[in-house]
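Minutes, project check-in
Item: structure for the 256-residue chain
Input as provided by the requester:
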Amino acid sequence: MALLSVRNLHAAIGDKEILKGVNLEINKGEVHAIMGPNGNGKSTLAGVIAGNPTYTVTQGEVIYNGKNILDLPVDVRANEGIFLGFQYPVEIPGVSITNFMRTAVNEKRKYHGLDPMGAAEFLKLMEEKKKVVEMTTNLANRSVNQGFSGGEKKKNEIFQMAMLDPTLAILDETDSGLDIDALRIVATGVNKLRTPDNATIVITHYQRLLDYIVPDFVHILYEGRIVKTGPKELALDLEKNGYDWIKKELAEKGEL
């Protein structure tokens, strides 16, 4: 059984249809990259899977761990093991990363019938996971994302992912705004967290991220549908030829 099956998914914002029949299947242990031009539905797909109420699903199913999750609220999906790394992480003034993460970790434990993690155990876990993204102690004691650089925000996203240990991680343009050193740290962190029991969806515009996080499959999402799927080399074709060749190929097939 696939970890995630997206079947004929249609979704809209207001009267504007954005997803127009997305089909996608992901198994545990896999990394999938989703590429495509701006405004074609990549972030919408991520938001729909994670439960963002901005989007209205008009047709289709999202099956996760054997059950349709479209009626589940966002917090339940998160506690079930779905993690979304934001393209633009929000700031939460006055809430330290430490307190924020302790609340999140213990809410997930409560959902699964476990006792809260004690302070000493939590701090030990936090020190261990901070190493994944080379996070400093000073950063952990600051308010969530407040005054952070772009690289610090993205490192914090992967640190949160490490703490919550999701089964399905969706990273929405994690590489945007990163210099080469921050990109390496973030990508290395993602790779360290990969196991045979979890899966990752990487949404990106650029091949450079996929030099670090090597996908098992690359999907091109164009005009609300996944129109092409291939191995990691498909990303190289995109970088070389742009999206015009996809448009031409679809037109020749009568699919535009």
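Outcome recorded: The chain is about 40% helix and 25% strand.
No further action items on this chain.
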